[in-house]
Amino acid sequence: MLQEEREQGCIITFCSALDELLGGGVPLTKITEFCGAPGVGKTQMGMQLAIDVQIPSAFGGLGGEAVYIDTEGSFMVQRLEDMSKVAMEHCRHIATVENNREQLEAMADFTVEHILSRIHFYRVHDWVELVALVNILPEFLQQHPKAAEWLGTKLHQASRQSQSSCCACEPDDHQDGTFW
């Protein structure tokens, strides 16, 4: 069981302090909660993880996809695009400095357009929409196996697929303090 957990992998963040704190990165098939007052960066962290889960394996990443569920309306495509450019440039810099052929080849697919196309975004406005989305996720994940693994055992078994992914779900700070 411990061996299986070690083999699950992590989403690397390229932030050595955070990766070290989390034992190598944000663990897959587990729930990792980033919480805090409005404005501390929870949405930014969710968007960054949606990008980081896609870092090619040549860089130690997972080459996965992301499901991003926004219950607040704070998701900004322009910001995501800017963050994607920085991640792409960072990986390109690493590949160039190390003159690593595998990494340089991986950069052909690690473009802003490719990153954005592998973030499956859902905006839900209330708990009814959220429950409906959770109910259709297994079918979606069967069609998108690279977005399946983070969800853990129940949805993972329902999808019967296994690759890598990240989901960021932003609770609405203004709704009676309830979320699920």
Would you kindly provide a written description of the structure presented here, covering whatever features stand out?
The chain has 180 residues and is of the alpha/beta class. Helices cover 45% and strands 12% of the residues. The chain has eight helices and five strands, in the order H-E-H-E-H-E-H-H-H-E-H-H-E. It has helices at residues 2-7, 16-21, 42-52, 77-98, 101-106, 112-117, 127-143, 153-159; strands at residues 10-11, 26-27, 65-70, 119-123, 165-170. A three-stranded parallel beta sheet has the order 4-3-5. The protein has a two-stranded antiparallel ribbon with strand order 1-2. The longest helix is centred in the middle third of the chain and has 22 residues, at 77-98. The chain is globular, with a radius of gyration of 16 Å.
Keywords for this structure?
single chain; 180 residues; alpha/beta; two-stranded antiparallel ribbon; 5 strands; globular
* Tally of DSSP helical segments: 8
Largest sheet, order of strands side by side?
4-3-5
Outline type: globular
Main sheet specs: 3 strands, parallel
Spell out the helices and strands N to C. Answer: HEHEHEHHHEHHE
Radius of gyration over C-alpha positions, nearest whole angstrom = 16 Å
Spans where pLDDT lies below 50 across 5 or more residues: 150-166, 169-180
* Strand runs, count: 5
Helix content: 40-55%
Structural class: alpha/beta
